[in-house]
Design goal:
By secondary structure, the protein is mainly alpha-helical. Helices cover 81% and strands 2% of the residues. A two-stranded antiparallel ribbon has the order 1-2. α2 runs antiparallel to α7, α3 packs across α13 and α7 crosses α8.
Length: 307
């Protein structure tokens, strides 16, 4: 209970952002509605990544596979299954896929796990690409999808759900178990923490939100193309936001996503050719000089001010 109380400022900030996002279509128009939609999307994705990778230390570079699976489920069932069923179904299928691959994938650690998750995402991408090619549908157009305003409201709900889930896991016994796994997996298993079960649960839980997010963003683009929804850049961007924000708790993804979306809007408007270069420099700078991210910088500044 004390841990939840300490996070009231974070919860208040999250609710203020949600309220601002809900008001955006009415106050600022179509462009800023899309910006708010992107921000909510990245918050949801980065929070879901933090739920597993940030807490266990198993760095995944294949989170896009859940995003892509969810998008494919929604697209494949479009106009045959109601969206209020197909979007959650995308999350369920992504979580089931995570459960299926969890045990073999989670047997490896360190750089091997990073490479393996990237490889699994690429494998699934080309399997679905071959299926679509065999069906004669290299791409699909989605007519009659909901508007950006409706998608924004649903995405805000997913961002809040992902943030709440990460916060709850952080302050719970389950989250403390995941943190123990990150610090020393062998020692955690020795003291009685069910390491394998905790890792599988966290891996599956971290897949559900991206599955639903992928389905919503497929509806947003109204155009489905396999190489687009399984683009590895999605995974790289999630990891970048988590590192810049600080992947230790639920505050980091919020700060990292807000920082990166704001920076991307600024750079695309003023220096589009330098965007990826500057993005890389920011990432290197945070890894070298501020490994705890923006959360760590703010905490250090708070300690210096109080002293």
């Amino acid at each position: 209970m004390k841990e939840i109380t300490r996070n009231w400022p974070f919860l208040g900030c999250l609710l203020v952002l949600a309220g601002a996002g809900i008001a955006t279509p009415h106050l600022f128009g179509a462009y800023w509605t899309l910006v708010a939609l992107n921000l909510a999307m990245w918050i949801a994705l980065t929070q879901s990544w933090t739920l597993f990778s940030g807490m266990t230390g198993y760095i995944s570079l294949g989170h896009v596979v859940f995003y892509g699976i969810g998008a494919y489920v929604v697209v494949a069932t479009f106009k045959t299954v109601p969206l209020w069923i197909s979007v959650p179904m995308g999350g369920v299928v992504a979580a089931l896929f995570a459960l299926i691959v969890a045990l073999p994938v989670l047997r490896v650690r360190g750089p091997y796990f990073v490479i393996l998750t990237f490889g699994v995402a690429e494998l699934v991408k080309f399997i679905i690409l071959n299926i679509e090619t065999g069906l004669g549908k290299s791409s699909r157009l989605l007519f009659g999808a909901p508007g950006a305003q409706t998608l924004l409201y649903v995405m805000i709900c997913l961002a809040i759900a992902a943030s709440g889930l990460t916060l709850f896991a952080k302050v719970s016994r389950f989250g403390r178990g995941l943190t123990a796994i990150r610090e020393d997996e062998t020692a955690a298993e020795t003291v009685g923490i069910p390491v394998a079960r905790y890792k599988v649960i966290a891996f599956a839980a971290s897949a559900a939100i991206p599955g639903m997010v992928g389905g919503l963003m497929a509806l947003r683009s109204t155009y489905f193309e396999v190489l687009q929804v399984f683009n590895p850049i999605v995974s790289f961007t999630i990891v970048t936001m988590a590192i810049i924000g600080g992947s230790g708790d639920a505050r980091g993804p919020l700060f990292g996503a807000a920082f990166m979306v704001g920076l991307s809007e600024l750079l695309w408007a003023n220096a589009p050719r330098l965007y990826m270069i500057l993005l890389g420099l920011f990432l290197v700078g945070f890894v070298v000089f501020a490994p705890s991210g923006l959360v760590g910088l703010l905490a250090r500044r708070g300690r210096e001010t109080s002293a």
